[in-house]
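Re: weekly structure request thread

Next one in the queue (283 aa):
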Amino acid sequence: MTTTDPTDTRSTTEMTVAARTRSRRRPRRKVSAIVGPLVVLLLVVAAWYMVSYAILDPARRFLMPPPHEVITDGLLGDAAPEMWEALGRTATVALTGLAIAAVIGIAWAVIMSQSRMMENALFPYAVVLQCIPILALVPLVGFWFGFGFSARVFVCVLIALFPIVSNTLFGLRSVDRQMRDLFALHHPGRLTILRKLEFPAATPAIFAGLRISAGLSVVGAIVGDFFFKQGNPGIGILIDNYRSRLQSPELFASIVLASLLGVAVFWFFGWLGDRMVGRWYQR
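Done, posted below.
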């Protein structure tokens, strides 16, 4: 004759209720994730219109043209093809610099993770690269690499390198001690530990570093455009040109496009990290 444990029944009921509660919360989270930013966007646009029409007089409205003028005269005007071409060049520079920084940064962190001596020897130089003012290096970068594509990519690498190094090293060093002990029972080599334990465990931290560096690489590409004004113009050169010509709608439109590029790259690596790591890390 079988008996039913009341504790098991209660635990099963509680798990069912918890699962139903989570399923109800998910649509609410999705709605709030969409509604919240839209509300803030509407408030920003309303404040923008208020500054353009209620605070600035018509003679000074060029300082902040209303949003519809930015869209019609800037994003949809005669300068739109030029902007999109320049944005494509800036995106190419940013993604190339980010890819190089990712390879160098991950390799650098892996080398440091293998011994404390290597970490003590190499990590200070990563900090030095982070602390060097990039604008002070611009003349040297121009002398070394010229003033074209290579110089812009080099600036992106310098700006985007440190977050990848620091986050990857943190992830490799944060492997659970019990997992290390379990691996040690089988006496694996360092390469096996790195490939099967440390690197998978560090994947969330690596993608966190990539998300940070993605936005920084766009900043580096635009900064490079400001100072290396040779070759095909990027979005940074257009921003400087529109500023000097007092073309306010085009200036605001180019700034919006540059910002959207940074957001798009940041979002892409966040999405890729979710696909690679899975929801288990965030829940």
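The chain has a mean pLDDT of 81. The longest helix spans residues 6-55.
Next request, please.
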